[in-house]
Structure formats: C-alpha cells, structure tokens
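Appendix C: a fully annotated inverse folding record. The material below is reproduced so that readers can follow the format used throughout the book. The structure is listed first as tokens, followed by the designed sequence.
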C-alpha cells in the first residue's frame, strides 16, 4: 500500500470527506468560484471546527430484531461522534443525512435535548414492557458534548426514578461524571458499564481515536467504577490485525488489576464507507503494513472487507481469527476474568406518570 502524498489531518480520524454513493450524494464540481482557487492554492482546510445541531425527533427509543446482539432497544442521545475513531462502524449512518461518514461524522454532530422527555412518554405507555436499554450502541453517550448537554445524565436520572435497567458502552472516562447515579443504580441491579480499550499505546490511540480519552484514563475509570460497586466490563474493541492485536493480553491484565471481573473482544468491522476510510487511514499512518492488515481482515471475513451477515459478523473465521480467539481466552484465564454476563433487574420498574396532570393526583 502506497503512502498517501497529502499531509495527515491532525486531530481527526478520517482523512477525507468520503462522499457516500449509496444515497446519490454528488461530489462538488468546480464552478470557478473563489473556493476553487483557494483549494488549488492552499489545499483543503486542515483545521476543522466541530458544530452541533439540535435535533428534535418524535421518539427516542429504538427497537431492533437482530438475532446476534444481546439487546432489543436502545437510546442514542447524539448522532456523529467527536472522538473520531477511524474504525467506527456507525460512520455510515451520517450518509442517511447526505453527510460524509468521514470528516462530517466527527465534526457535524447532532444532539437530542428532548431525549429524557421522549423516553418518559414511551415508558408511560400502558403496553410498554421493560427490558434493558442499551446506550452507546451507535455513537458514544459520553463524547465531549455530553459535558455541555448532559443528555445522557438526564436519561439515567429518569431510569433511576422509574427503576428501569440500562447498559452503557463508552470509551470515555467522562462516565465518572455520573458515578453518583451509577452507584445508586448498581445497588438496585439497574446498570452495567462497558468501557472499550483498543490499545494501551497512547500515541497509537491518538491516531486511531484522536479525541477520545487516553487508554490509561479508561482503565482508571474502570477501576473507579469497580470500586464503587458498578458492574464494569472491559471491551477490547475493535481488535485490528497487525495494528492493535499485540495489546490484547496487556489490556486484559490491566483490566483485571483494576478490579474488573469480565472482558470481551470484538474484531474490526468495516461496513460500507468505513472500509475506504480505513484504507485511507492506513495509507497515511501505516503504508508499510497496510496490505498485510487488509489481507488478514479479508481472511477472517470470507475474502471480503466486511461480512454483514448475522452471527458471522461478530464471529470471524479462519486461522487468524482462531489465533486471536485462543490468545484472548488464555489471557482471560490467566487474569481470572469471565465473559461479562450481567443480570439486571426489570421487576422493580415503575412507569412514570403519563403527564403533569396525572402527577398532581
């Protein structure tokens, strides 16, 4: 794989806009205006500012029927993610809005400030039946803008009020900002938290996930959660062949030392526009091993860059996949870590009042 000649865009994961083709979004054609001259002389802008648009959907609780994941409902407070992880499987979702899964995904964000109110309306419905709500399934609920909007916290406050169980997946130590709520929910078996750690090399992390907290901070957050009695799980994800797989054993050992009782791993997934974005990232940062990385990826994905099929998308096959699986199993055995099965309690669920008038009675 040849090294790309353009300079790297520092502080961002994606290295281009990666215009999606699936929904007919056209590339911008030169029309002789001032932008054409500017880009010809200066090149594309390197420093990009993050913008946030407030979104007001009609509902916030999404349901799925996927047979190979452990939850059937989720809440996503944000669209896009400033962490900028180049491997993020959620990047293609920005294409639904005619935005780039590349740089737009990590710079043009959407926030849903009405999330808690909308969830309250859903939980108050007579036919609603509780089951754990997954947060962080698409984009990170504790990305930097959560510090301003506090949408995730408002949803957790509602879940504590109604005794509704929640699972959280994040790669940020900002989850500790809600430790007071999480500790109280944990006492009632209402919450479990997974923090993903991709590598323990801070420099590599800065290239892969440029605006996410450092790996050391994430391990420290796992320790704080475990100390507070919050069920904490370390997710070694994604495992990127010939880039991050060397850190699997070290991450498992550090998680165990932090008091975590379970760990799991997820192989790299490259759906839709993520594959060309990831190839571009390799050409910028690891051109000497890019072909090797992609050859291994294809070997565990049936000869393709990505396997979209249920079950097999989460369970790769082949020699390399078997090697990673064996290494991870042995690392967990040495560290005394389990597989992370959390039994949350739905029996205490108390529906909220349907409206203000009812709450007065």
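Designed amino acids, in order:
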């Amino acid at each position: 794989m040849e090294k790309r000649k353009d300079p790297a865009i520092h502080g961002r994961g994606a290295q281009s806009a990666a215009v999606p083709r699936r929904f007919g979004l056209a590339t911008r054609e030169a029309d002789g205006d001032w932008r054409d001259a500017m880009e010809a002389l200066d090149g594309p802008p390197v420093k990009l500012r993050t913008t946030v648009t407030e979104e007001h959907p009609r509902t916030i609780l999404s349901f799925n029927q996927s047979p190979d994941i452990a939850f059937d409902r989720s809440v996503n407070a944000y669209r896009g993610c400033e962490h900028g992880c180049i491997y993020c499987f959620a990047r293609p979702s920005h294409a639904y809005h005619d935005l780039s899964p590349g740089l737009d995904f990590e710079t043009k964000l959407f926030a849903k400030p009405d999330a808690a109110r909308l969830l309250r309306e859903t939980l108050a419905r007579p036919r609603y039946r509780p089951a754990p709500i997954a947060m962080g399934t698409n984009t990170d609920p504790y990305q930097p803008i959560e510090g301003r909007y506090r949408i995730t916290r408002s949803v957790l406050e509602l879940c504590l009020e109604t005794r509704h169980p929640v699972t959280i997946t994040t790669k940020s130590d900002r989850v500790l900002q809600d430790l007071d709520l999480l500790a109280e929910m944990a006492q009632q078996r209402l919450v479990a938290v997974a923090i993903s750690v991709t590598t323990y090399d801070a420099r590599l992390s800065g290239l892969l996930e440029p605006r996410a907290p450092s790996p050391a901070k994430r391990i420290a957050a796992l320790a704080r959660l475990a100390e507070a009695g919050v069920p904490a799980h370390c997710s070694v994800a994604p495992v990127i062949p010939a880039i991050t797989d060397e850190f699997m054993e070290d991450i498992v050992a550090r998680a165990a030392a932090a008091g975590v009782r379970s760990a799991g791993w997820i192989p790299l997934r490259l759906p839709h526009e993520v594959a060309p974005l990831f190839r571009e990232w390799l050409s910028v940062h690891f051109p000497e091993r890019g072909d090797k990385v992609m050859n291994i990826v294809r070997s565990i994905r049936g000869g393709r860059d990505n396997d979209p099929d249920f079950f097999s998308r989460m369970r790769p096959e082949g020699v390399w996949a078997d090697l990673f699986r064996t290494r991870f199993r042995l690392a967990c055995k040495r560290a005394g870590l389990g597989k992370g099965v959390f039994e949350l309690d739905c029996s205490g669920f108390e529906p909220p009042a349907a409206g203000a008038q009812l709450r007065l009675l």
